[in-house]
Automatic annotation (TrEMBL):
This is NADH-ubiquinone oxidoreductase-F iron-sulfur binding region domain-containing protein. It comes from Actinotalea lenta. Keywords: 4Fe-4S, Flavoprotein, FMN, Iron, Iron-sulfur, Metal-binding. Residues 315-394 form the NADH-ubiquinone oxidoreductase 51kDa subunit iron-sulphur binding domain. Pfam families: Complex1_51K, NADH_4Fe-4S. The lineage of its organism: Bacteria, Bacillati, Actinomycetota, Actinomycetes, Micrococcales.
Length: 412
C-alpha cells in the first residue's frame, strides 16, 4: 500500500506488518523465516511518540468506522461509548489468543510490531479510564510472549497509564472468547458465560483484539485507515499476508501460488462459513462487501478446499473438533454437538439422511449457554448449501469416497 503521512510529524506509516509470513500448518504463529520484532527506537522512528488517550478519540473511531478485528466486527466507537457510560473499575484486555486453530494474524503482528499493540492498549486504557491493562495470550504462544516482554522492558515508564500485565490462558478453543477472558481476568475459569446486564459498581472488562488496538494506535496519530486486511491463508502450510481490501479472492490465491481454482473456501476458521468458489472468486476481502453477500472473514482465515476433497468429510471433522472443544456447560454442548458430528460423519459415508441432520442442527441453534454451538450449526448449514450436489449424492447412498483431509491440522 502507499505510505501515509502522520499529521504534523512528517513521519510515514505504511503497513501493519513489517512483512508477510509463512508458517507451519498449525500451532502458534512461529514463522519459518523469523522477522526481528520492531524495537523501541525503530518504533519511534516509524510512528513518533505515543499521544495521550482521551475520550475525544471516540470521534476519530466513528469517522474511521473501525470495527473489531477479532471476528465479530462490532463498531469500536459503539463499544467505547457503552464503556464510557458505565460505572465501576475497568480492566482493558488486549486479546492475542487466537483460538481458531489455524489463525495466525494476531500472533504475527505481536511478533513483528509489539510496540504498536502496546501503544493502542495504553491509549485505550487512558481514554476509557481503565485501572488495569492486560495482554491475554494462549499459554503455548512463547514467541508472542517473548516479543512482548522485550518490548515492555525497553519502553520508558509512562506515568499516566496503568502498567501492562501479561496473562496466560489455557490452550483451548474457547479461551479466546470475550466473556471467557473477562471471567479469567477476574480470577475465574476461562470459560464463556451467559451475557448479563452490567451491574453498576461491579468490576468491568473490555476486550479488544490486538489488531484492533494496533489500528487505534495509528488513528490516534491521525493516520488514516490502512485500507488493508490481515489474512491467514491455508495451503500446504499457512501464510499470513497483508493485502489491500480491494484484493479479490482470485488475486489473493494467485499471489500465493494457486494455479487451480478450489471448489470452495472456508471463511473465518473452524466456526466460520463455507462458500463456493463461484460465489466468492470475484469478491474482495473487504469485510463490508462480504457482509452484503451474507459472508464474513471473521478472524481473518481463508481456507481453500481443493477440487479433489470432500466438503462433507471436512465438515464432519470440523464439527468433531468443535464438539471436543465445548465448554460442557449445557446440553447442546455436551450432547448436541457430538450427536451432530456423528450424524454428519454418517452422511459422509452415505448412511444418513440430510433432513435428520438439519433437524439436529435446528434443535441446537440458539439454545446453548454460550454461542459456541451456534458456530457449529452455522458451519453445517453452510456446508449443506455449498456442497448441495454432494449432499444429495451422499444422502442417496452414493458417497464420493474421498475421505482424505485437505488440511493436515485436522488430523490432530
Amino acid at each position: 500500500m502507499s505510505e501515509t503521512a502522520v499529521a504534523g510529524t512528517g513521519v510515514r506509516a505504511a503497513r501493519l506488518l513489517l512483512t508477510d509470513a509463512v508458517l507451519p500448518a498449525h500451532g502458534p504463529a512461529e514463522p519459518t523465516d523469523p522477522t526481528p520484532a520492531e524495537g523501541w527506537r525503530s518504533h519511534l522512528a516509524a510512528f513518533g511518540p505515543r499521544p495521550g488517550g482521551t475520550p475525544a478519540l471516540v470521534a476519530a473511531l466513528e469517522r474511521s468506522r473501525l470495527t473489531g478485528q477479532g471476528g465479530a466486527h462490532v463498531p469500536v466507537a459503539a463499544k467505547w461509548r457503552r464503556t464510557l457510560a458505565g460505572h465501576g473499575p475497568l480492566t482493558l484486555v488486549a486479546n492475542g489468543a487466537e483460538s481458531e486453530p489455524v489463525a495466525a494474524k494476531d500472533g504475527t503482528l505481536l511478533r513483528q510490531r509489539p510496540h504498536l499493540v502496546i501503544d493502542g492498549l495504553l491509549l485505550a486504557a487512558e481514554a476509557l479510564g481503565a485501572q488495569r491493562a492486560v495482554i491475554w495470550l494462549h499459554g503455548d504462544d512463547l514467541g508472542a510472549r517473548r516479543a512482548l516482554r522485550i518490548a515492555l522492558a525497553e519502553r520508558p515508564w509512562e506515568g499516566t497509564a496503568p502498567s501492562v500485565e501479561l496473562l496466560d490462558g489455557p490452550v483451548h478453543y474457547l479461551a479466546g472468547e470475550a466473556s471467557a477472558i473477562a471471567q479469567a481476568a477476574a480470577g475465574g475459569p476461562a470459560l464463556p458465560t451467559v451475557r448479563r446486564r452490567e451491574v453498576p459498581g461491579r468490576p468491568r472488562t473490555l476486550v479488544h483484539n490486538v489488531e484492533t488496538l494496533a489500528r487505534i494506535a495509528l488513528l490516534a496519530r491521525d493516520v488514516e485507515e490502512t485500507g488493508t486486511r490481515l489474512v491467514t491463508v491455508l495451503g500446504n502450510g499457512r501464510a499470513v499476508v497483508e493485502v489491500e481490501s480491494a484484493t479479490t479472492f482470485t488475486e489473493l490465491l494467485a499471489d500465493l501460488g494457486w494455479t487451480e481454482a478450489p471448489q470452495a473456501v472456508l471463511l473465518g476458521g473452524y466456526g466460520g462459513l463455507w462458500a463456493s468458489w463461484s460465489r466468492v472468486a470475484h469478491l474482495s476481502v473487504d469485510e463490508a462487501a462480504l457482509r452484503r453477500e451474507g459472508l464474513s472473514l471473521g478472524a481473518g482465515v481463508v481456507a481453500p478446499l481443493g477440487a479433489w476433497a470432500c466438503g462433507i468429510h471436512q465438515t464432519a471433522r470440523l464439527v468433531d473438533y468443535l464438539a471436543s472443544m465445548s465448554a460442557r456447560q449445557c446440553g447442546p454442548c455436551v450432547f448436541g454437538l457430538p450427536a451432530l458430528g456423528e450424524r454428519l460423519g454418517a452422511l459422509a459415508v452415505g448412511s444418513a439422511d440430510v433432513g435428520r441432520l438439519l433437524d439436529d442442527a435446528a434443535s441446537i441453534e440458539g439454545r446453548g449457554a454460550c454461542h459456541h454451538p451456534d458456530g457449529a450449526t452455522r458451519l453445517v448449514a453452510s456446508a449443506v448449501s455449498t456442497f448441495a450436489d454432494d449432499v444429495a449424492a451422499h444422502s442417496a447412498g452414493r458417497p464420493c469416497g474421498s475421505g482424505a483431509l485437505a488440511w493436515p491440522e485436522l488430523a490432530l
